[in-house]
Amino acid sequence: MSEPIVEIANGQIRGITKRSIEGYDYIAFRGIPYAEPPVDDFRFKDPVPVKNWTGIKDATKYGDICAQFDLTLRNFGGNDNCLFINVYTRSLKNVEKKKPVMVWIHGGAFLYGSGNDMHFGPDYLLRKDIVLVTFNYRLGVFGFLNLEDEVAPGNQGLKDQLLALKWVQQNIEVFGGDPNNVTIFGESSGAVSVHYLCLFHANKGLFHKAISQSGTSFHNWARVKNPKTYAYALCRALGNKTTDPKEAVTFLRSIGSDELVKAQEEVRRASDNVGNRFSFGPDIDDKSSDPYMPVAPEIEALKGVHIPYLIGHNNREGILALLDDKTFTALQKEKYQYIQENFEKTILPRTLDTLKHYNLTPEDLRKEYFGNKAISLDTSGIYADMCSDLYFVESVHRVLKIQAEKSKTPTYYYKFSYSGQVSLTKALLLNPITGACHFDEVEYLFFVKLRIPLGLGSLKRGTPGYRVMERMTEMWTNFATYGEPIPEKTNLLTEEWPPIDDGTNLRCLNINKFIAMETVENLDKRFLSIQSSSTKS
């Protein structure tokens, strides 16, 4: 296979031609540095653009992932030097004919993941005429140490994302991409990141359309509550009882990345309070000299998103909650009993804020979903549905209501319901529960290489799952190209998909074995009705 060479702003890079799982060839430039390594005294600081180099830099292999606990291999991996970007295109010929650019922001609770092809292979999306970009950004304490002080104001991981988008603007034309037609898209915490970018940085000309898959700034896991308490807990776990921000930063810079990740995992798993699991992530960084998020995002979100926006969720996101997040195996009988007896402790701290928004208590919530039934293995399906609504659907619906009222640009709403193919999450659960779980839709946009060693295989031509992939990639790339997911009906896309126009009765494309428009009642109506029945009683 040939090794193409291009010249970007920083110097020359050598890529590689690869054969896709679909049988076509594409060109990949992998592991391109977009920032100076955030090591030593640069750890916990804002990213700095990479310096120019001489000679030809190798971009045939992925760069290291950011330091994290590897959920798949069950070990600690990655390191500080991880700020790399990957670019994929079908051809470098006729680069003057600019292609739409799609920039993927990976999920993983701001703790896990990378832009590499283990989860995000380009094979499906590059069937279409686009340029695809993926990248790494700092995770956990490395990207989100927030001592509520100028020495560590937080959100370095989000600033990495901004710098990656600036790199795209500066360099994407070399790969045949159109810097004036960039769509950002992401799933889970990547989708939250997309919403944050739309709220705080949409006026910088870095992107022009956005897709949020199962994530918004309203999610009760999207922002850390009291972040400095976790930072000092991390210091204590490593033997330092300081409460001085400068001393804490100096100390944490002296710790190796593996040891720091291990201590971070200990802090996260030290309590049965589920809030600890989201101990390092975004929050207000108003102590920064260059803040990313100077005010609470839920306040900024009330203004709406004012670029074409595609947003949605899967129909049973909460199946993910049936996994024990300490062992990543299915919840056992004893765990359900613990949830039954300690219900309030097992919901996220910011979930209490969500409930207050509707004038509800945790007990109101439990009664609404379970009635007089106990939370148990037998009612795990109800538990999954409650978690779907509480942790995903409610916040998406809240954004949709704002969009219907405030935005003059189109917003498209989808619900992904297809569960015909065994998903990664269900493979871990060993549970035949029906419905599309968190992350399931991603497997119909990207080739997830991890499926192969797990014995799950790839999508086969002629199967319903393959047809779902064809529709998903067509709609997503249509949106990136035209700002509409279905600009006209075809044999593949047999429905019209109009944008929402009402925040209560939501126009929604249900993506299943086939696609169909339906009207979905905003979840706030259900939650508000719980409030009124509580008030009456």
UniProtKB/TrEMBL annotation:
InterPro entries reported in the protein's UniProt record: AB_hydrolase_fold, CarbesteraseB, Carboxylesterase_B_AS
Domain Carboxylesterase type B: 3-513
GO-annotated molecular function: carboxylic ester hydrolase activity
EC number(s) reported in the record: 3.1.1.-
Coiled coil region boundaries: none
One Pfam family cited in the UniProt record for this chain: COesterase
TM region(s), chain numbering: none
Record's keyword annotation contains Disulfide bond: yes
Annotated Gene3D superfamilies: alpha/beta hydrolase
EC category name: hydrolase
Keywords: Disulfide bond, Glycoprotein, Hydrolase, Serine esterase
PROSITE patterns: CARBOXYLESTERASE_B_1 (PS00122)
PANTHER family: CARBOXYLIC ESTER HYDROLASE
Protein family according to the UniProt entry: Belongs to the type-B carboxylesterase/lipase family.
Protein name in UniProt: Carboxylic ester hydrolase
Origin species: Nasonia vitripennis
